[in-house]
Specification:
Layout: E1 2-4, H1 10-19, E2 24-30, E3 35-40, H2 44-56, E4 72-77, H3 85-103, E5 107-110, H4 116-122, E6 143-147, E7 152-158, H5 163-173, E8 178-185, E9 188-195, H6 203-211, E10 216-222, H7 227-230, H8 238-241, H9 249-255
Parallel strand pairs: 4-6, 5-6
Antiparallel strand pairs: 1-3, 1-4, 2-3, 7-9, 7-10, 8-9
InterPro entries: Formiminotransferase_C, Formiminotransferase_C_sf, Formiminotransferase_N, Formiminotransferase_N_sf, FormiminoTrfase_cat_dom_sf, FTCD
Domain Formiminotransferase N-terminal subdomain: 1-149
Organism: freshwater metagenome
Amino acid sequence: MINVSEGRNHAILDALTQVCSGDLLDVHTDSDHNRSVFTVLGEEAPRRLTQAAILALSLSQHAGVHPRLGVVDVVPFVPLVNSSMQDAQIARDEFATWVTGEFNIPCFLYGTNHTLPEIRKNAWTTVMPDIGPHVPHPTAGAVCVGVREPLVAYNLWLEDVDLATTRRIASAVRTAHIRTLGLQVGAFTQVSVNLIEPMISGPNDVFNAVSQHAAVHHAELVGLLPASVLATIPRARWEDLDVSVEQTIEWRVTNR
């Protein structure tokens, strides 16, 4: 799930989608976040997408409610079938070395020494890039390159709830397995969620947790989820939770 800091320019997004052709499983775009999440397979598609985004985008022309460090903000490597966490870590390190060598862009590595939230909070102060310059690239910023198990990215939209209250709700439901942000998205507010242990705390759990504080207007899956996570959710709740078989990684791999 590569996070690119562009969610409004459809011509650029179409061009970025084309460079992933053959390896693309999903694209999720949000104009308020001004961010798109590309779910791709392999090691070459992330490089093609990164190169195209770096050439097309500039942080100096970017504005959006979601925090970001770079035009290619997050590149995680996730082991799926027939690959290991060690394979993913090797791919992460080789990708970061390539980005710095090709474009002189600094890379923060997460999944071993640091978490992604730690980097977002402390970048350029107590946490410096692991590879490359110790200052942001003038147009591309920096890239957070990680290794992790599959997670579920999820948004819960709230209506008539102010931002301060939404941030308190986000804090209240945050756990070791649920990472949250409270954001303003147009007329709504949003609890933006990463479920980093979705077999322990999944979409059903975080939806119920937020609902204890405010009515959820609607839920939104960002990208895809593992079939094993979908299997833990009662079928009767799939529509309300915005999940389905067609939104699983396994279905998209089989039907791409």
